[in-house]
Amino acid sequence: MHIELRDIRKHFGPVKANDGINLVFEGGRIYGLLGENGAGKSTLMKILSGFQPPDSGEIVIDGQPQRFSSPAEALGKGIGMLYQDPLDIPAFNVKDNYLLGRDRRVILNYKTARAELDEITSRFSFEIDQQATIENLSLGERQQLELTRLLVGGAQFLILDEPTTGISADQKDKLFNSIRKLAWEEGKTIILVSHKLDEVQELCGEAMILRKGKMVGRTPVPCSNEQLVEKMFGQIPLRGERPVYEVGEPVLELQNVRIPTYRLTVENINLTVRAGEIFGLAGLEGSGQQLVLKACAGLVKNDQGRISLAGQDITHWSYQRLRTAGIGYIAAGRLEEGLVAGLTITEHLVLSQPSHKFFIDWASAQKQSEARITQFQVVGRPESLADELSGGNQQRLLFGLLWESLKLILLEHPTRGLDVRSSDWIWEQLYARRNSGTAILFMSSDLDEIIDRSDRIAVFSGGKMSRILDAKTTSVEEVGRLIGGQE
Amino acid sequence: MKSRQWIRWIWPIVPILAALLVTSLLLLLFGASPVTSFDAMLQGAFGDTSKTLSVLAFWVPLLLSATGLLVTFTAGLWNIGIEGQIIMGAIAASWVALKLDAPSAILIPLEILAAMAAGALWAALSAVLKTRGKVHEIFSGLALNNLAIILTNYLISGPWQPPEGGSFRGTEPFQDAALLPLLGESRFSPLSLVIALVAFGMVVVTLRGTLWGLKLKALGKNLRSAFLLGVSSEREMILAMMFCGALAGLGGAVRVLSWFDSLRQSISGGIGFLALLVVMLANYRMFWIPPISFFFSMVLNGAITLQLRTQLHSSLGGILTEMMVLFVVLFGDATKLGIFRKKNDHE
Q: Is residue B119 part of a domain?
């Protein structure tokens, strides 16, 4: 299958997300699509997969110009996209989800469905329990199911958007093996959209780099990381050095904390985070680290144990009360738990800052908003809606909404989906916070981030917390073992 | 771009025109002339001063209720219980009117306060059931609507029945001092219109210019994020419902103290539901609320004359308004029809 993109353009107001992109893809190859946040990768892939139409330009498949009005139509022509968050219906079981949109008869043919599922899953050694409902599957398993659905749907051309975010190392290996098989043995074309240079180096034969809506280079890989980074950013960003900082008094203390939920019970949590300390929580998604963070933020309740902030017992305090006591919390889902789609940057600022009175002074709010936008380097205007911002800018905005002086900052995946430069920027902000004595407790599925950024680390596995590691002396291997539940 | 903006602005009129068209077809089907019928309706609404005043008198409680609903819709709440809140307001105002002996200057403010308090409390019940009991406000609202109707029936056939005996029709007429000052022989009280317009203005200012209004907007769009941004969701939801309930209760007071002169069996006459339709038709464009509610009042009042004139049943007015709502649901969101390009999310 030969796909050609000709002069694809897509503008969002003044933003040129795609500014005349020309690309050719050949069958049987694995391509990597690189670019920093806001470079236009997602827009281009959404156009290619029929999610949105381009303003101008055309998609040519095997010499035929095509127009898609929906992802289903694109899949009909052989183009399938695996989204970062698989588009499935949580309450359905595996078979129903698989059949949805595939079987158009009144009475569903479960038998064929089972056979098709079995055939593909065994070919790629996926492990999917067909009786399970989607909400009980891990992200990796949902991804495998979605991939299966695309393949049975006739996809010859697969777009994978950040497929390794939030899945285990084992699932990643399986995914990569099946990708190689699909390309090399079955002649399918694969595009991997990723921020992770190592993955592109490991998997792809060629990297294509986008910057500010334009193609800035194609290069065979493996090549040196520096070469890729230079193309992505136009310069090599300097990695911020971890500043040395003397930690102070204990800020957050958890004693024998137990958090019961219907799926997982976290027990015997004892940890202390000191002023100016950065404490990282590692572990697979859903191993309990998020529950601990949410308990500290007052969003879930522990039934045993004690949580204290700067010596004061804060067990069972409400979120709003903890907020005034000096705890800032940034959740993983930016538009689900943090920003309100449909509200402007200025409106967010007015809502989140404590200083406003009954009547809103829109003129001064606008000025404050402009100041924050500059300070936090958000690409947007005071009247931009939160959902119009790119992921990286949404994260910058969330940091811009944190209060000035905080005792403790809690973070879920602070740099998920962000490029190297945005991630560094986020951590510079956090280092500045710690230098003024704020304690930082964060969770991340990126092991390098955990080890590079933390002072101390705790690893969660199946609701249990490991011994506490010193980040300076530990290794990826050691943390990896603990994630797998081995001592 | 310019013409697009213009279409967007007049968009609410489209369902109205479509409804007029379909109703005309219906009329033709029954062998009636649409022109004479609509003319009869217009005559019924504006034929003489008393008819026009009637339209105004019906408009006031409708406008008050729709104004209240603007607040709850902004907060993302479906206040179906508004009908019950109107009725409770009417009952509270009637209670003051029946039980208290005082000059107008004292009696009327007391009636209004009692009505607003009763409406607000009835709405608070729905709100607390939602925040504490996890009962959706649509279900509690429907239940509370029925309870309010049952309470009215009990009062007019029991404790508040007229001396000549209960007849399920209503209480005896209130003392003159208890009634709102009316214009001439009509049922229209200019004072009530002033109050309604002031309330509408207040709500517009509240939603556009106050922190509370912004909090409600955030709640309505994303409860979880709003909570994390520091909006106390439970408190604001209860307050929004009470605010709406108070205005609905005030509407109920206007019904008993000017449209009627006593507490009647169907005291609201579906004004609450009608107000829901008004707000849906306006679809967050606040300044459409007064004209749309006025139009509804005109159609429903005009339909009565239509029946007298042409022997067509007055439910034609109802058909016309319901038709409009159907067309709103069909055409309402212009972006759905692809007439306006929706802003896509992008990197």
A: yes
Q: Structural domain boundaries of chain A? A: 3-233, 250-483
Distance between B321 CA and the closest CA of chain A, angstroms: 31
Give residues 213 to 252 of A whose Cβ lies within 8 Å of B: none
Name beta bridge partners: A58. Answer: A6
Q: Are the C-beta atoms of residues A362 and A356 closer than 8 Å to each other?
A: no
Residue by residue, pLDDT tens for chain A (487 residues) are 889 999 999 887 667 788 899 999 988 899 999 887 678 888 899 899 888 889 899 899 888 898 888 888 888 888 989 887 666 666 677 777 777 666 556 666 777 778 888 888 888 777 777 777 777 777 778 888 888 888 888 889 999 988 877 677 778 888 898 889 888 888 899 999 887 778 888 899 999 998 888 888 888 888 887 788 778 776 555 554 566 677 788 999 999 999 988 778 898 999 999 999 999 999 877 788 999 999 999 999 999 999 999 999 999 999 999 999 999 999 988 888 899 999 999 999 999 887 767 888 889 999 999 999 998 888 888 999 998 888 888 999 999 999 988 999 999 999 887 877 888 889 999 999 998 899 999 998 888 888 889 999 999 988 889 999 988 888 877 887 787 776 6
| CATH number for the domain formed by residue range(s) A250-483 | 3.40.50.300
> Which among A358, A388, A401 has CB closest to B210?
A358
Whole-complex ipTM:
0.83
Whose CA is closest to B248, among B24, B101, B63, B110? B63
Cβ burial A184-203 (10 Å sphere, 16+ → b, else e): eeeebbbbbbbbbbebbbeb
Pairing of strands A265-274, A3-12: unpaired
A258, A275, A455, A461, B280 from A255: Cα distances, Å: 9, 18, 20, 19, 52
A250-483 and A3-233 share a CATH fold:
yes
Q: Does B343 touch chain A (CB under 8 A)?
A: yes
Please tell me the distance in Å from B347's CA to the nearest CA on chain A: 5
Residues B199 and A319: beta-carbon distance below 8 Å:
no
Residue B124 lies in a domain: yes
Residue B347 lies inside a defined structural domain of this protein: no
> What does CATH list as the number for A3-233?
3.40.50.300
- Counting Cα atoms < 13 Å in the Cβ hemisphere of A193 gives 25
How close, in Å, is residue B230 to chain A by CA atoms?
6
Nearest CA in chain B to A333: B225
Are residues A413 and A377 in contact, defined by beta-carbon separation less than 8 angstroms?
Answer: no
Flag whether B31 is in a domain.
Answer: no
Residue of B nearest to A320 (CA): B230
Predicted structure pTM score: 0.76
Candidates A338, A342, A352; nearest CB to B221: A342
Smallest Cα–Cα separation from B114: which of B125, B127, B103, B99?
A: B99
Show the domain range for B124: 62-286
Chain B residues in contact with A52 by the CB 8 A cut-off are 344
Chain A residues in contact with B225 by the CB 8 A cut-off are: 335-340
Domain count, chain B: 1
Q: How far is it, in rounded angstroms, from Cα B260 to Cα B272?
A: 17
Contact A338 B225 (CB under 8 A): yes
